[in-house]
């Protein structure tokens, strides 16, 4: 005998009317937003790994009896790194294959540049950048195979084997700033495994954003599964009383939720695929992306679509336990959804564990810190409904206005539903609190407007100082040149012999000074404060960029969750609103009750999660031995204002829907 589940599900879906269609569209929209956000963040994570692998060829791996010499150097212009790869074919050795992005191994005097660097060379005066490289008849172009980003500044220069740029002086090591920015070795190919300093940390930072966005997306998908829950419960309870089995009503709900979720998830996934060219223009780290780098692959594509669909389906089915056990109670709306004290016990226990684990004072490794952050995140999500329930009871006891009393009753009757309305933004508050003070960075501000040149010894440094004054004067740069002392490790030379030029005139003059001093020590190019602070500024920049992206996407998810849930609550409670309107309750009182139902838990819980995020970030700063960025508090204030505006805008969007469902209170109540 054929099962009646599928035709009955289709019949009920078609006969549910316009409001049933609205609930399904809202659920599908929530699934689409969740899938789009997760695919974008996963794309940033996997794409970062692809980009980093494309930079590994530039750092030479030494081999015995190599066929060529490769040297890596880094210079800066307008505070942007320029990677310079010098190559020299050794005489009497086999031909060396072409590096990635080039058709052949460069000959002496040939210069190949990335498209972005070519544009910059054309835009800036030669005294600021062009004179740092040999002057060829024409610049060649590095193909995309040798670049991590279309915005990357890279040059490949062909040298003679006896050139200073590929001599042993080019190995670096005179200061600790050279790590990751200078290297030299004999090679026979370009199969290096050491990623560039400027791309190596990108994936880890993007992964942190995925972790922090994962829970809001889960909450959004769960909220989507519960859209229209009250109406669905009433309908299925009637079927249960008419003789339907628990298995049948669960199958009906699962089919309907899976179809809606799959449609929404596919919509979000297709939107991600269609917007890949636009997403590729969003800069991260060294710049924008090649479109192919942001394609997550069919595996991740299918996994995210099916995962969000499954979350939505499980969320919808989990609401049917009471229908299956007590359909009469559901039909009479006799059972408020209270929360249990076990949530408080688990919350206190988790906080105790976190406090005991982190009390060692900076002794935690990165994996343990990440685990604690996830635990912070998870336990507050578990604790939220319990707090909302108690807030409703306290608010109801001291309420003095009808709107406040109605809001309190809704909070205590359905704390999980009220929590779902605000959970996205409350959990985004955790990210805001975390990122506001976790912008790690070393203090290299004292090296601003300085250019240093490392020399072989102190005697050479004194001669180099006189030559540096002459070169800077000829370039029209006003500077004070001093000789560094080898025992002074607090200077830009880091204890190495050399000279330091203190430049007047800002970034443009610093760039000109670096170019003017390049002939002074061709084996170890002059460097500015950007070079000295590169390792710290890269980490700072990535965390700052991930913080902005995570907060922006968190607001998207939170606003979608709040708006969709608020609209669904209006549809689910239309019978209650109709009865209240028949009893004489003004529409503005109902609207105020909706707003207060959201504002009260938002203010209380957002403050708690923000404080927890700041605490977690403080422990991370302590582990890395860094201080808090002074602009973090301003960023947190801006995030709070934007979050509040987004939440109120999302709630206000459902006000016309409330007006429509209460337009005929007699019919609505019936």
Characterization of the model:
Helix 2 packs antiparallel against helix 8 (about 295-320) and helix 2 (about 15-55) packs antiparallel against helix 18 (about 535-570). This protein has helices spanning about 5-15, 15-55, 115-125, 200-225, 230-240, 245-275, 275-280, 295-320, 320-325, 325-330, 340-355, 365-400, 400-415, 415-435, 460-475, 505-515, 530, 535-570, 575-580, 585-625, 630-650, 655-660, 665-670, and strands spanning about 70-75, 80-90, 110-115, 140, 155-160, 185, 450-455, 480-485, 500-505, 525-530. By secondary structure, the chain is an alpha+beta fold. Strand 3 (about 110-115), helix 3 and strand 4 (about 140) form a beta-alpha-beta unit. Mean pLDDT is about 80; it is low at about 320-335. Helices cover about 60% and strands about 10% of the residues. It has a 6-stranded mixed beta sheet. A 4-stranded antiparallel beta sheet has the order 8-9-7-10. The longest helix has about 40 residues, at about 535-570. The chain contains 23 helices and 10 strands.
Ordered list of secondary-structure elements with their pairings:
Layout (H helix, E strand, L loop, with lengths): L4 H10 L2 H38 L13 E10 L2 E10 L21 E3 L1 H9 L16 E2 L12 E5 L24 E5 L14 H24 L3 H13 L4 H29 L1 H4 L17 H22 L2 H5 L1 H5 L10 H16 L8 H33 L3 H12 L1 H23 L12 E5 L3 H17 L4 E6 L13 E6 L3 H11 L9 E2 H4 L1 H39 L1 H9 L4 H38 L7 H21 L2 H7 L3 H5 L1
Parallel strand pairs: 2-5, 3-4
Antiparallel strand pairs: 1-2, 1-6, 3-5, 7-9, 7-10, 8-9
Helix pairs in contact: 1-6, 2-4, 2-6, 2-8, 2-18, 4-8, 4-12, 4-14, 4-18, 6-8, 11-12, 12-13, 12-14, 12-20, 13-14, 13-20, 14-18, 14-20, 14-21, 18-21
